[in-house]
Amino acid sequence: MILADKIINLRKKNGWSQEELAEQMQVSRQAVSKWEGAQTVPDLEKILKLSELFGVTTDYLLKDEIESEEFTDDDDHTPVKRISLAQANEFLDLKKWTAKRTAAAKFLCVIAAIPLLLLAAASEVPGFGLSENAAASVGVVILLLMITPAVALFLFCHFKNAPFEFLEKKPFETQYEPFETEYGVDGMVREKQKAYRPTYVTSKITATCLCVLSPIPLMIGSFTNNDLFTTVMLCVTLFLIGIGVMLFSAADTRWESMQELLKEGDYAPCSDGRERQRKRIKRNIVVIYWMAATAIYLGWSFLSNSWEITWAVWPVAGVSFVAVACLCNLFIDKEK
What we know:
single chain; 434 Repressor (Amino-terminal Domain); two-stranded parallel sheet
């Protein structure tokens, strides 16, 4: 095997494009292209840098008769997991199966409060014959009966996905395990990704529209003095949000499963430790931001009982998030 083929194999095993390898080698993409096309040969300095970067010996790189990779002594090399075509198909089928169930579980979690809200509002209606305590008790029981199967679905899907859990780790996470895909996996996944893309785009657009339009029923209900009608409209809003969340979840789960195998998007290999650290910080900021938004919404809503107003937290949070993301990119990436 000649040097050009070895560079191609090593680059692909690390999941790098020619541009990414060129960046790490501090050369142009054209230079890497010429190395891989056997048009030119890297000089000694670049050979040493390739050896260090890939963790292989210079003998392996320079001697055509050495076919098997020889790793450097100081490289604490561990066998890399390899994903066969059959395993890749099994993983994608499993994610397709679990996507529907986790989406349904999230839908149940979102709408679980609807019976409690309706019963509480009904207890305020004269002549309905339902006390507040009875309404609260029955409502909580129904809520628990809806949450319990949702939790069971989450746990069941988690255990089903356990054999492929390492694929779901992002490169900037501490427990990330590198893996390789065998010949044919990349092409198969790209074909499935291409076929699924129209459904993915339609689901994302529909879910976004539902979430944006979901406050309309609540706004309509707030224009009346009928508390029961307002509560019903609030429940319609929650139902629309639940459908949106379900569509988002199902679409993203399947799309990300393909990105995991292709090492694209959030699953693209990080070039260095600083890049991993930057991504980790960004991810933590996103989690903290939306947890804070949720806490503000729930706290304000329950303390003021003004659900017809507090929904405004979400559009404000959505717009503010764009500014937060821009600030993250500005300050976190400024050292890149």
